[in-house]
TrEMBL record:
It comes from Bemisia tabaci. Residues 86-99 have a biased composition (Basic residues). Residues 1-116 are annotated as: Disordered. The lineage of its organism: Eukaryota, Metazoa, Ecdysozoa, Arthropoda, Hexapoda. This is Transcription factor 25. GO terms for cellular component: RQC complex.
C-alpha cells in the first residue's frame, strides 16, 4: 500500500513510523509515546479510501516518491547512522534531478504524446509510408508478418466453441474422453484424450541446428531405440500385412509413421473419426518434443524437408488440417496452413499454397489473403496459379460486398483469360447451364495440352466450387465471361499476351511438390499420372526428395516396368501401404496374379484389419489402467467425482 493511502488512514507521519536503531536498543519508549495518537487515528474508516477518486499510476507513483522523500527528512532519521543518512540523501537528490513535473506525468496516462499525435495526423492526411521490398530485411519481416499466427487459432476445438458454444463442445469432449486423467499435457494443435497412454520416452527429440538473422533451423533426431522400431515398421510395410503395423502400435503407441499409416487405412474405409484420432496422436507426440525455443506463432522456425526425420511433421500437419477443414473449421485450417508453410516457405514441399486461398476465403480473411497474394506475387510469382488468380478476384469482390467491383472485375477477367478451362467444369459443378453465347464460343472450349495445368485447374474446381455457388458470385462470373468474349472478339492485345505467357509457364512436367499435394489430397476428380511419380508412394512419406538425407537404407532391388503393367493390378497395388512404383518385378507380378484372381480376398482382409483395429482401441482403456497401476476402486471414485 502506498504512503499516500497510508496517510489517508492515519498511519503516516512522525508519530506513526518508528525506526529501530541498528544497535538493537530498546524502542519501547517510542512505541508507547505514539500509541495514543495511533489509537485515535485508527478510529477512521479505512474503507473510505476506496470511495476516493482514483488517480493515475503516474500520480500514485509520484505521490509515493514525494511522501517518501518527506518522511525521510523527519527527525526520526537521527536514530540511523550518519553514513546511512548521507547515502539516502544522495539517492533523494538524484531522484529529484530526474523527476518529471507532476502535471506532465499525469497527462501521460490520459492523452497522447504531442509528437505521436502529430505524426498520426500527418499519416491520416498523406497515408502510411510503405517499406520498400528492395531491402531484403524488409522482405523477411513482411514474410514473417504474413505467416504469423495466434496460438489459440491452432486448435480446432477453440473454433468449434465459437461456432456452437463452449458448453456443447465441452459436453461432447467429456463424452469422448470418458474418465478423467491428469497425466496428459496441453498442446497447441490437438486436445489429447485422457485414454491415451503416457508418452514415456519414445526416442525422438528436436535440436537446434543453426540460427541466423532471426531464423532458427531445427531437426528431429531419432535415437537408436526409435531407429530399431522404424526398421521394424518398414519391414511391416513391405510385408503388406496391416496386422504387423498394429503390432508395432501395440508395443510402441507413439510411433509416428505407424500412426500415420493406420490413419490412412481408416480414412480409406471412411472411418474419419478414428483416422483423425491417429493423426492427433502423431501430432501430439511430435509437438511434445518441440525444442524449447521452437516458435510456432512467429514464423521464425524452419525444418528441412530433405531430412526424413522431419517429414513426419509436414505430412501429419497436412492431413490434420485437411480433416479440420472438412469439419468446417476453416480459420483453424488456415492457421495450420500458415504454420506448415512457415516451416519451409521457400520450397513449400507440400504445395500448401494450392489450398490457402480456399481456407482464407471460407474463413472470411479477405484482407489477409490479398496481402499475402501481393507479397507472394513479388517473391514467388503466385499469380501464375489458377487458385490465386481466381481467389484474388473473389476476395476483392467479397471484401467490398459486391459494391466496388472494378478491381474484382479486372482480376476475374485476367483469371478467365489465363485459365479458360476452369469455367465449364466450374459451372457444371455448380449445376449451372452456360448460355448459348458462352457455350458456342471457341475461347472457353479450348483444351490445354499441359498435364500440370489440367491438374491444377481440376484441383481448383474440385476444391473451390462450393464458394462459387453464391448467386451473386455466379451472376458476377457470367457478366465477366461475356466481357472476356467481347475482348477476344475485339482482338485485345492483352488477351494474346496473357495466353502466350501461360504456354510458357506450363511447359515443364508437374513439379514434385504439387504431385505430393495431389497424392495427399486424394481427390478422385484430379487425375494423377503414375508415370510422373518416380519414387515410392508411401502414404506416410509420398515421393521423398531424390537428394534427401536418410538414416534408413533399404536394399536396392530390380524394378517392374510400369508401362507394361496391368492397369487393374497397378490400381489395387497403389492402395496398399507398401506400394512402390519401383517395386521388385517378381514380387509385383506375383501380386498381379493374386489380385487378378481374387479381389474379394483383399477386401475381406482390409475389413478384418479394421475390425481388429476397432477392437484394439476399445480394449485400450483397460490396458492403460494396468500400465499406470490403477485398480477398479480408484477408477470408480474418479468417475463418481
Amino acid at each position: 500500500m502506498s504512503s499516500r493511502v497510508l496517510k489517508k488512514l492515519g498511519l503516516q507521519g512522525e508519530k506513526d513510523i518508528t525506526f529501530l536503531p541498528e544497535d538493537g536498543s530498546d524502542a519501547e519508549g517510542d512505541l508507547s509515546h505514539s500509541s495514543g495518537a495511533r489509537k485515535k487515528q485508527l478510529n477512521l474508516n479505512r474503507y473510505d479510501v476506496l470511495n476516493e477518486q482514483s488517480h493515475s499510476e503516474s500520480e500514485v507513483k509520484e505521490d509515493d516518491d514525494h511522501e517518501t522523500t518527506s518522511s525521510l527528512t523527519n527527525n526520526d532519521l537521527g536514530q540511523v547512522e550518519t553514513k546511512e543518512i548521507s547515502r539516502k540523501k544522495k539517492k533523494k537528490k538524484k531522484r529529484k534531478a530526474h523527476r518529471v513535473p507532476a502535471n506532465a506525468r499525469s497527462s501521460e496516462d490520459n492523452a497522447e504524446d504531442e509528437v505521436e499525435r502529430s505524426v498520426r495526423e500527418v499519416n491520416e492526411m498523406l497515408g502510411e509510408i510503405e517499406p520498400s521490398f528492395s531491402d531484403p530485411k524488409v522482405v523477411v519481416c513482411r514474410s514473417k508478418d504474413i505467416l504469423s499466427i495466434e496460438q489459440r487459432n491452432l486448435n480446432p476445438n477453440n473454433e468449434l466453441k465459437r461456432i456452437f458454444g463452449s458448453k456443447i463442445v465441452q459436453q461432447t469432449e467429456m463424452k469422448k474422453r470418458g474418465r478423467v486423467r491428469g497425466h496428459m499435457k496441453t498442446t497447441w494443435f490437438v486436445t489429447p484424450k485422457n485414454n491415451w497412454p503416457p508418452i514415456g520416452k519414445p526416442g525422438i527429440e528436436m535440436k537446434l541446428v543453426s540460427s541466423s538473422n532471426g531464423i532458427n533451423v531445427y531437426q528431429y533426431i531419432h535415437h537408436p531405440q526409435y531407429q530399431q522400431v522404424q526398421m521394424k515398421f518398414l519391414d511391416a510395410v513391405d510385408s503388406g500385412n496391416p496386422d504387423n503395423i498394429v503390432k508395432i502400435i501395440d508395443n510402441h503407441p507413439y510411433h509416428v509413421d505407424a500412426l500415420l499409416q493406420l490413419s490412412e487405412f481408416c480414412r480409406l474405409s471412411e472411418d474419419f473419426s478414428m483416422s483423425s484420432e491417429f493423426l492427433e496422436r502423431a501430432l501430439f507426440i511430435l509437438e511434445s518434443f518441440f525444442h524449447p525455443s521452437f516458435a510456432s506463432t512467429s514464423a521464425s522456425s524452419r525444418l528441412e524437408y530433405d531430412l526424413q526425420e522431419n517429414r513426419a511433421l509436414f505430412i501429419a500437419l497436412f492431413k490434420h488440417l485437411t480433416l479440420v477443414g472438412q469439419r468446417a473449421c476453416y480459420r483453424t485450417a488456415l492457421e495450420l496452413s500458415k504454420f506448415l508453410l512457415s516451416l519451409d516457405p521457400v520450397n513449400d514441399p507440400l504445395a500448401i499454397t494450392l489450398s490457402v486461398d480456399f481456407y482464407a476465403i471460407r474463413a472470411q480473411q479477405y484482407s489477409w489473403f490479398l496481402s499475402a497474394a501481393d507479397q507472394w506475387t513479388v517473391t514467388r510469382n503466385i499469380n501464375q496459379l489458377p487458385n490465386f488468380s481466381y481467389g484474388t478476384a473473389i476476395a476483392h469482390f467479397l471484401l467490398t460486398g459486391g459494391k466496388d467491383v472494378e478491381k474484382a472485375n479486372e482480376c476475374l477477367q485476367r483469371a478467365l483469360i489465363l485459365f479458360p478451362g476452369v469455367l465449364f467444369p466450374l459451372l457444371e459443378k455448380c449445376g449451372i447451364q452456360p448460355d448459348s453465347k458462352v457455350m458456342g464460343h471457341s475461347f472457353f472450349n479450348q483444351q490445354t495440352t499441359s498435364t500440370s495445368l489440367k491438374q491444377l485447374e481440376a484441383l481448383y474446381v474440385t476444391r473451390c466450387h462450393h464458394i462459387w455457388r453464391d448467386p451473386d458470385l455466379l451472376a458476377w462470373l457470367e457478366s465477366n465471361a461475356h466481357a472476356v468474349l467481347g475482348r477476344v472478339d475485339e482482338e485485345d492485345s492483352e488477351v494474346g499476351d496473357l495466353r502466350s505467357k501461360v504456354e510458357t509457364w506450363y511447359k515443364a512436367a508437374t513439379p514434385r511438390n504439387i504431385l505430393r499435394h495431389l497424392i495427399l489430397s486424394d481427390l478422385k476428380e484430379v487425375p494423377i499420372n503414375l508415370l510422373d511419380c518416380h519414387g515410392p508412394l508411401y502414404s506416410f512419406d509420398p515421393l521423398p526428395p531424390p537428394g534427401g538425407t536418410t538414416i534408413y537404407h533399404r536394399p536396392n532391388r530390380p524394378t517392374l516396368n510400369m508401362e507394361n503393367a496391368n492397369a487393374f493390378s497397378a490400381f489395387f497395388r497403389s492402395l496398399m501401404p507398401n506400394y512402390d512404383i519401383n517395386e521388385p518385378a517378381g514380387q509385383a507380378i506375383a501380386r498381379d496374379v493374386e489380385l487378378g484372381t481374387n479381389v474379394t480376398e483383399l477386401t475381406q482382409s482390409v475389413t478384418s484389419f479394421l475390425g481388429a483395429l476397432r477392437d484394439y482401441l476399445s480394449d485400450f482403456h483397460s490396458q492403460i489402467d494396468i500400465d499406470i497401476g490403477l485398480d477398479t476402486d480408484d477408477d470408480t471414485e474418479v468417475e463418481s467425482g
